[in-house]
Write a structure and sequence with these properties.
The chain is mainly α. The strands form 3 sheets. A two-stranded antiparallel ribbon has the order 1-4. Strands 2-3 form a two-stranded antiparallel ribbon. A two-stranded antiparallel sheet has the order 5-6. About 25% of the residues are buried.
């Protein structure tokens, strides 16, 4: 059970809460208690420090110590020839690494990941990591290793260029409806499907993208947070360590849909279950956000429940 769930459970066990009859009053009581809670206040303070670019405190959204720890763990796995685990830890290191020009952590993690990719014969991806490592300030005294690796990748790619390249898109499933279904309408019941032909057991009739969805945190850094395809090389969010995607396309789509709000709030979102995070994404995906006023929604989630009363007021109208 998360800290937030524990807090709400303790509040709901109070005698005054149990005396309240209306759900609205119960909700208001919980929110008033949460506003004054030290844990909630700390979440709000941490978030404001992250968003305050002039703050002298270090932002926890990118973490140099964690990036280095994850990279060293990746090195151990690589030495043990556990390439998949090495990729996992290098991906985590890349997500956590500050992109500041004063830090070489991102460059080091990219360079180390390129070695695994070369071993896995992912030459184009390895070359891409090498170029990005050099771009982000890879140490000049180690550059000869990357130059050699870059030459190897280029030679392999040139050798393979004569072979036809097959590619497949594993993005979100396209819409599909079987011609064995027909849409009917009745005034009493509205629209409904009716079989137009015999349907075989296990036959796919409809396939569509979900209205909103979330990836369980245990699969973070293994699967794309937008299309949910398995990740070989993560494309990280430039602002936080939580956004991890299989491509720039997925990263940009996630940002436009929901990550613009979730970014910098990873520590807070970890304190709620998947259904609560899904509720947030449903709000962000719907016209309901316009009804509430999108700024209120932002303030509510970003500032630790401080504006719940405004949401209640909007909902009661």
């Amino acid at each position: 059970m998360s800290e937030l769930e524990n807090l709400i459970q303790n509040i709901s066990a109070e005698s005054h809460y149990r005396e309240l009859a209306l759900e609205k009053d119960k909700l208001q009581y919980i929110l008033e208690k949460l506003r004054s809670n030290d844990i909630i206040s700390k979440w709000k303070s941490d978030y404001e420090q992250c968003m305050n670019k002039n703050s002298s405190s270090s932002c926890r959204c990118k973490n140099a110590e964690e990036s280095e720890k994850f990279r060293l763990q990746g090195n151990k796995c690589f030495q043990l020839k556990d390439d998949q685990s090495a990729l996992y830890w290098y991906n985590r290191s890349i997500c956590s690494a500050p992109s500041s020009s004063a830090s070489t952590l991102l460059a080091l993690a990219l360079a180390n990941r390129s070695a695994v990719l070369l071993k896995l014969q992912e030459f184009q991806k390895s070359l891409h990591d090498i170029e990005n490592a050099l771009k982000h300030g890879y140490p000049s005294d180690l550059k000869s290793k990357l130059d050699k690796r870059k030459s190897t990748c280029a030679a392999k790619l040139q050798h393979d260029s004569a072979s036809p390249i097959q590619s497949s898109s594993l993005s979100k499933a396209s819409l599909y409806q079987s011609d064995k279904l027909q849409i009917h309408y009745k005034k009493e019941t509205g629209r409904f499907y009716k079989a137009a032909a015999d349907i075989n057991k296990g036959e796919v009739l409809i396939r569509e993208a979900p209205y909103a969805s979330v990836l369980n945190f245990k699969w973070h850094y293994l699967y794309c947070d937008y299309c949910y395809n398995e990740i070989l090389t993560v494309t990280q969010c430039p602002s936080c360590s939580a956004g991890c995607y299989c491509s720039v396309t997925c990263r940009d789509k996630a940002w436009n849909l929901y990550h613009w709000m979730e970014c910098h709030s990873f520590n807070i979102l970890q304190q709620v279950d998947d259904s609560a995070r899904l509720s947030l994404r449903i709000i962000l995906s719907s016209s309901r956000s316009e009804v509430l006023g999108i700024q209120i929604v932002i303030l509510y989630f970003k500032h630790s429940l401080l504006y719940y009363d405004h949401i209640n007021e909007a909902l009661s109208k």
